[in-house]
Amino acid sequence: EHYYAKPHPTESRWARLTNAIGLFLDEAAKTVDPPTVGLVTWSSHHADDGTATVDYPLPPSEIAWSDNRDAIQQALLTRAADDGTDGVFGGTHMADGMRSGLAEFQSENIRPFANKVMILLTDGVYQGEDPYQAAIEAQEAGITIHCVSLLDGSTFAKAQEIASLTGGDAYMATNDQELRDAFIRIARSLNLVLTK
After folding, report:
1. DSSP state, 190?
2. 36: closest CA among 58, 66, 11, 3?
3. What distance lies between CA 2 and its chain's CA centroid?
4. How confident is the model at residue 193 (pLDDT cuts 50, 70, 90)?
5. How confident is the model at residue 142 (pLDDT cuts 50, 70, 90)?
6. Residue 131, CB-side half-sphere exposure with 13 Å CA sphere
7. Residue 106 and which of 40, 57, 96, 179 are 20 to 30 A apart at CA?
8. Beta bridge partners of residue 170, listed in sequence order
9. Distance of alpha carbon 29 from the chain centroid
């Protein structure tokens, strides 16, 4: 009955995710050079053809951090307020979402030597193509994928495989605190500077 309904404004997984992303953005703002951030969402019934949507493309590196942050938060609010015709519901087409994210890293807005990091959040068992192939493509493109799984079991095992292959970390977040902690840890890891 609620399969196609708008997410609850405070008690849904979408609301919790929005709050966690807010914490991620707060942590990223504390860095000397905050990252540019884009947003891709996906599900089997998300778009007319069941593929992913770029809700906010990666912006030029010159964008003011406050503008980038505001755009991401507005994109999340817009998706949550959807009337059910284009909301995020249905199955988890993870490979489609990952490939749409990978395409964003090919944008002319990417700095040539940027540290390319994708955060993959999933709340279900993937459907369609195994996302491991998309992870191989990410690894070949030099993109690190950090995975956050809202479920344990086979979903978390797949998240671990993807993260391990690409040099990222996998987090199981079965409650609000674990979700917040995962996004904060990921944001703090982005500020690492390697010198030789």
Report:
1. T
2. 58
3. 24
4. very low
5. very high
6. 32
7. 179
8. 147
9. 17
State residue 145 phi and psi, 5-degree precision.
Answer: -120, 120
Contact 40, 118 (CB under 8 A): no
Pairing, β 53-56 against β 39-41: antiparallel
Query: Using one digit for the tens of pLDDT, what is the confidence trace for 68-103?
Result: 999 999 998 887 776 555 545 556 688 989 999 999
Of residues 185, 188, 189, 159, the one with CA closest to residue 172: 159
Three-class HEC string of 160-180:
HHHHHHHCCCEEECCCHHHHH
Whole-prediction pTM:
0.84
Q: Which helix (H) or strand (E) holds 17?
A: helix 13-29
CA separation for the pair 180, 183 (Å, rounded):
5
pLDDT, one tens digit per residue, over 41-69 is 876 554 445 568 888 999 998 899 999 99
- Cα separations (Å) of 57 from 75, 102, 147? 10, 11, 20
Q: Which residues contact 194 (CB under 8 A, 6 or more apart)?
A: none
What's the pLDDT score for residue 166?
97
Lowest-pLDDT choice from 6-15, 84-93, 130-139: 84-93
